[in-house]
Amino acid sequence: MGFLKRYNSSRVDRYNRQKHHWPQGAITVFAIACCVYGSIRTGYAVEQFTGMNPGAELAVITILVVLFQRFSTEAQFDSKLYRIGVRISGIAVGLLLYGVPLLLLTDLAYFLLRGTVTAPHFRAWMILIADAVTLAVTLVGTVNAFRPVTVRYTVDLGGSGTYRIVQLSDLHIGAVVGETVLNNIIRRTNSLRPDMVVLTGDMFNHGYVEECRDETLIARTVSGLMAKDGIWSVLGNHDPAADDPHLQAFYRAARIRPLDNGCREFEDFTLVGRTGTVSEGADRRPLKDLLAFTSSGKPVIVLDHDPMGIPEAAECGVDLVLAGHTHRGQFFPYNLFVKHSFPKGCFYGMHRTGDTVSIVSAGAGVFQVPLRVGTRSEIVCVDVKL
């Protein structure tokens, strides 16, 4: 069932045009400077105990890894070696993220304590301890990225029966998240015995299905999700367009039912799907237009990748919104900045706005950097009283 082409540079170009561009050149130069600084410090510490200074070699290796990470965000290849490189370079980002601040603290501590501490190799020991802490935090964060937890919520919409919805958001299938990770997520999802599974956007990593190394195998893996009322999906900002033939073929093979800018009536509720994000909403229809097609009297559940749509849903009197997109910041301290960039109730967890209950997932996968520090990948289980 080889229904997808392996590599399509035009799709990569389209994604890169659509995404928000950071000043990548400046970030890369800063990262290289951090590599040099960290390598000099670690080389000095090693030299104190061995007489050899590997600082230059460490600098070259870390700079190459950083450059690979920079390159890998804008190009994709069907290569196992490439995917291993993406994971390694992602881990290197974590080492820089935590290692450089800790090394700066050792320099500050040495400056403040110089002349008062006479222990031999005091500065070298501080550097090596900082390196060890950095390595431990990064390794734990890498493990956390691929060991999702199950987060449970109960939402009372006035009924006596319980309807179980399992939400999988932000899988980011691609170079980092592949078959092994998906199999674990699907196994755990099925063990919850959901009545419905919903995929709330960013199923793919870079805006095109072909990033999957074996998209046929991935589609067959996803098709293993089991739910009485099916698997429903909306698009996020990292997904292909709804009319993309590769996406449509993937959906058919994976038994996923798209619900972008549409609604579906069930016995006890109405399911409404929105597409895209508020900031890139050319294809995003006003929620009130979608609700015009719903039956009155039934609770309305909205699937929306972008939690910034929650206030609009509350204005329209929606009962429940399931969203994602934020990753809960994915790793410390970035999560602190992300938290403050979203309004209250739109960053993570369950909140109530008027009569509207909203749940924002931290996501079942990770984007580009295989790291979770201060957050966990999660499978969201929602028991709805209908």
Topology at a glance:
Blueprint: H1 9-18, H2 24-50, H3 55-72, H4 80-113, H5 122-145, E1 149-156, E2 162-168, H6 179-191, E3 196-200, H7 215-222, E4 231-234, H8 245-254, E5 256-258, E6 262-265, E7 270-273, H9 287-291, E8 300-303, H10 310-315, E9 320-323, H11 334-341, E10 349-353, E11 356-360, E12 378-385
Parallel strand pairs: 1-12, 2-3, 3-4, 4-5, 7-8, 8-9, 9-11
Antiparallel strand pairs: 2-12, 6-7, 10-11
Helix pairs in contact: 2-3, 2-4, 2-5, 3-4, 4-5, 6-7, 7-8
The succession of helices and strands, N to C, reads HHHHHEEHEHEHEEEHEHEHEEE
- The helix-and-strand class reads alpha/beta
Give the CATH class of the largest domain. Answer: Alpha Beta
The second-level CATH architecture of the largest domain is 4-Layer Sandwich
How many helices? The count is: 11
CATH superfamily of the largest domain: Metallo-dependent phosphatases
Report how far apart the termini are: 40 Å
Tell the overall outline.
elongated
Radius of gyration: 23 Å
Q: Compute the number of strand runs.
A: 12
* Main sheet makeup: 6 strands, mixed
Q: Give the helix level as a range of percent.
A: 40-55%
* Poorly predicted tracts of residues: 1-22
CATH topology of the largest domain: Purple Acid Phosphatase, chain A, domain 2
Strands of the widest sheet, in order across it, are 1-12-2-3-4-5
Average of pLDDT? 87
Beta-sheet strand percentage? 15-25%
- What is the count of distinct domains? 2
Q: What does it look like?
A:
The chain has 386 residues and is α/β, with parallel strands linked by helices. The protein folds into two domains: 20-144, no CATH class; 149-385, Metallo-dependent phosphatases (Purple Acid Phosphatase, chain A, domain 2, 4-Layer Sandwich), CATH 3.60.21. It is built from eleven helices and twelve strands. The strands form two sheets. Strands 1-12-2-3-4-5 form a six-stranded mixed sheet. It has a six-stranded mixed sheet with strand order 6-7-8-9-11-10. Helix 2 (24-50) crosses helix 4, helix 3 packs across helix 4 and helix 7 (215-222) crosses helix 8. The longest helix has 34 residues, at 80-113. The radius of gyration is 23 Å and the shape is elongated.
